[in-house]
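Anyone able to model this chain together with copper (II) ion?
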Amino acid sequence: MQFLTSLLFAATAVQAHYTFPRLVVNGKPEEADWSVTRMTKNANSKQGIENVASPDLRCYSSQTAAKVADVPAGATIHYVSTQQVNHPGPTQYYLAKVPEGQSASTWDGAGNVWFKIHSTMPTMDSNKQLTWPGQNEYVLTNATIPAATPDGEYLLRVEQIALHMAMQPNMAQLYLACSQIKITGGGSGTPGPLVALPGAYKSTDPGLLVNLGAIQPDAYVAPGPAVWSG
Ligand SMILES: [Cu+2]
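re: yes, here you go
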């Protein structure tokens, strides 16, 4: 029994990483994994990204997806993870509007086009460890598509940043995916600030190079621009 238990623990450790193959909009999941979410290069390996200057920081995708999901402005969204999201760190959501004449099915998301719509902050748990919403769950934390977001096609990007080794440079691990969506019933807001990915993050950002044992929860500053709330 002892032996079996340690075997199980070993297996869990190996599978500790994750991908986010399924977007959920107002409680309704996409019909199959990777149908509106672009399959990521780590679909099998589950490996995170450590180099924030890599082109993979944008969508990490190996291919585009077959479909585009309809998403009403104001919708609640989240992603389902393939494994428990066991590493501490923020979950962030970004949107990028597909330029005129292009399609969410093919656009690559290049340029200063990304704005942040959600970012989570940690709390201190009973063991004096920083812990984030959604940590140790199989679903990522919810976000709301701001009601003022203009109608049109977008790429939606989710990221969870694993900070358990981030006291050393280039050791934060980023897990992310992009989905192809069409926002309807939106408003006339002007989303921003707009940033490029890669480009917006530096390996020395205090949200990426950080000793979680040495800071208070409200001192954590996630990388990237301020959240646009509409
Ligand atoms: Cu890990």
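Residues 16-17, 87, 162 surround copper (II) ion (CB under 6 Å).
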